[in-house]
Amino acid sequence: MxxxxxxxxxxxxxxxxxxxxQPLGNLNLLLDxxxxxxQQILLAYERPIHFLKRYGxxxxxxxxxxxxxxxxxxxxxIQQKSQDILDLGRMLEAYKQLSNxxxxxxGYFHPVFPIIPKEDWEEQLxxxxxxxxxxxxxxxxxxFPPEMGFTMEMIPYLVEAGYSxxxxxxxHIRRQDGQPASPYQGYLAEWKGKSIAIVPRERDLSNxxxxxxxxxxxxxxxKNKTKSCASPVLITTWTDGENGGxxxxxxxxxxxxxxxxxxxxxxxxxxxxxELVFLADYLEQHPPTEKVHVQTGAWNVGSTSGxxxxxxxxxxxxxxxxxxxxxxxxxxxxxxxEQPAHSEPEYTRKLQEMRKLLLQSxxxxxxxxxxxxFLSFMN
Length: 379
Known about the structure:
Layout: E1 2-3, E2 6-7, E3 12-20, H1 26-33, H2 35-55, E4 61-65, H3 67-73, H4 76-81, H5 88-97, E5 101-105, H6 121-136, E6 142-143, H7 155-160, E7 165-169, E8 173-174, E9 187-191, E10 194-201, H8 203-211, H9 215-225, E11 233-240, H10 245-248, H11 256-271, E12 274-276, H12 279-285, E13 293-294, H13 310-313, H14 316-338, H15 345-361, H16 364-368, H17 370-378
Parallel strand pairs: 3-4, 3-11, 3-12, 4-5, 5-6, 6-7, 7-10
Antiparallel strand pairs: 1-2, 8-13, 9-10
Helix pairs in contact: 1-2, 2-11, 14-15
């Protein structure tokens, strides 16, 4: 927009999010077989605390911790094995005390929701929500789909679980006329009478956040990309928070937190045209009104587009694994309906064990890495 011939840049609200996840057994395996990698990963989980404490309310960051990651943090044997690296219990307590983070929900065992049985969606959602409340003493406000796997059919389940917004990949959002939607604002999506706020994840800037970027470059790109947008602008960047050398680097002069985040906050304070925001607050202040349709898809992993689920369903072994998951799910729900007729404690115990194995088998990592990955993670 222009004022007296001068271009006035719109104010940019930046929602920064980090996704934290390890499949069950992986931390234990790394601590036993590759302690250097385990140390890099564990310290990547702890490092944000120091920077968030340093900057207080100036720093606002969203975090998603999978249920399987939190389960490993709480495992006494893993706590004992990693005590020479860090105190996991103290780390969780430090996160619990932070007021400048917003927690988001996932599925407990990190499933790609659109490719697993719908009958299992509710349990994955509620188990994770209960875990977050137990560990951090607060409810997650928004939802980050594992692998950003989303379909419109999830909306009623998310609303029922108490979520007010969901982050989706911007590449999949379509306006009512079928045209791609801008990734720089919030939207509404509705399915079977239930609606939820849709937050687009900006792909290009998120890719930069994952691989490494300079704060001056980021601020310039953010302003350039949104110069024709109406104010306020919402930019949402979301990546893994522990994968890759950028996040794992032990030197603060060369990692995300020291090289980008810290100077970024200093420049934000000095310039005043960008601010970090919590999505729940932003959406309350700027409630979305435009309705959109979100195409079923995931985020772009490596060289894949995210328009399908080939990363998890493309190979013959992946197809066979999914067929087995569907058979196990059907068998579990059949037995669950029969449970009232079986009051024996052993029957109940076995049914609960079957339920956990079913939900655990839906972990996205097992499908992504194929049979080799499944065996290594389950070892």
